[in-house]
Amino acid sequence: MWGVRDVQGAIRFWTEALDYRTLREPDVDWAILVPREGHGPQLAISQVTSTAHDHQRHHLDLYAFDQEDEVERLVGLGARRVDWEYPDDADYIVLEDPDGNRFCVVQAGEVANHL
């Protein structure tokens, strides 16, 4: 479950970010997202009262073969870069979705310790 304060905003962001669609008509406080085509994990979105800055709700790593292009695409969809102290060998960039939930875009094919 992906806890958010703005369900409709999360649907707009994550369907574009992941190339997903809603499984069925979303409720006011709940939605299930599935891959637009083919099979893959479903993502449940639920309205919560906590803010992402007060309570870390979850963490998601997205792996990309072209990390910088993917970061720019996600920023164009409404994500924000996070001021983060990165180690020298960091293979990830920390972003926030429009609801303030942090996630990482990781360079695919490389393994490193991160969040």
UniProtKB/TrEMBL annotation:
What SUPFAM superfamilies does this protein map onto? Glyoxalase/Bleomycin resistance protein/Dihydroxybiphenyl dioxygenase (SSF54593)
PANTHER family, per the entry = CONSERVED PROTEIN, HYPOTHETICAL FUSION PROTEIN
Q: Which Gene3D superfamilies match?
A: 2,3-Dihydroxybiphenyl 1,2-Dioxygenase, domain 1
Q: Which InterPro entries match?
A: Glyas_Bleomycin-R_OHBP_Dase, Glyoxalase_6, VOC_core
User: Pfam families from the xrefs?
Assistant: Glyoxalase_6
This protein's name: VOC domain-containing protein
Domain VOC stretches: 1-108
